[in-house]
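<goal> How does this chain fold?
<sample>
Here is the protein in question

***
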Amino acid sequence: MGYDTIQIHLDALLKEQLSTYSHTNMVDESAVVSAALRQYLESDQPTSSELAAGYKEMATINRAIAADFAATEDHDERRIV
């Protein structure tokens, strides 16, 4: 398996934690970042279809909220003008 090089930006605290962990456990920083990224990507993240289903389920209530807000906003604008 080949490797590609990427550049990442870490805040100072996270960089220090990575350095400390790598030094303490005698492991390369790249190995830690790769393992953490792999774990994150393989974790139980919702898929696009699951997110879409959630949006569809919420559509009716979102329309009702938007209609209520629009009516209130329209009423307020009439009082200002």
Summary: The domain at 1-45 is CATH 1.10.1220 (Arc Repressor Mutant).
